[in-house]
Amino acid sequence: MGVNIDLDISDWDQFLNSGMKRIHRDDDTFPKVQKPLNLYDEYTSNSGDFRPANFDLWRNELSKMFIDSRVYLTMWLNGLSEMEKDESLWFSVSY
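RE: above sequence
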């Protein structure tokens, strides 16, 4: 099953989806913080949206993963930079 990860920024293309399944499923390499359904209650169920738990680790792993694909690497690194600046941004997932 395919996985598309979307981010609500202007230069994100959810259809440049190489590696998205691995990024979505590999919590050791790409640790995540899940967005709770109720942002004020950390004990409620998760919405499915997520943010990187460790931005530096993600940058390092993405740089290795997309060493031969600058278009993917650029998109992901720009997305991470935007997320660091704006804590209201979360990745969303569709299948």
